What we know:
By secondary structure, the chain is an alpha+beta fold. The chain has 4 helices and 5 strands, in the order H-E-E-E-H-H-E-E-H. 36% of the residues lie in helices and 27% in strands. Mean pLDDT is 74; it is low at 125-161.
Amino acid sequence: MPDRSSQQTGKDAERTALRHLERHGLRLLAQNWLCKRGELDLVMLDGDTVVFVEVRYRQHAQWGGALASVDARKRQKLIMAAQYFLQRESRWANYPCRFDVVAMDSATPHLNWLRNAFDSQNAAGPISAPFLKRFCFALRAAHFCAGKSLRNTWITPDQPP
């Protein structure tokens, strides 16, 4: 179990993400929604679209950082929890849905908001090409801000991480 400071850092990251998303016009439906299948950090409404937001914070960019931590297993858990949310909160069941990821780490001064980061059709497979391109851009930006070079470790869509 993480220590209190790690839990507090995670809650701070969720608050930062929530404020950012609200400034961009999204409306909060649920926060830290728990069920037997997992937890949804933020459930928001963007126009008529229900948005399931996974907030990730990593202190260190080792092992790929915050974005890379949303792996196939995590995406599958999010989809299962979202399906359960839509069953329990049936008023939202007929609305379009999407999965966003808000990623932050200590190396970058800003957050990365990836809209439509993945969908329920490709969650178990490799990360989609659009997600991977955004991931690579964000990873390169994070290392640039930290004063590191990724010249020899650049990841391309045909070369999965």
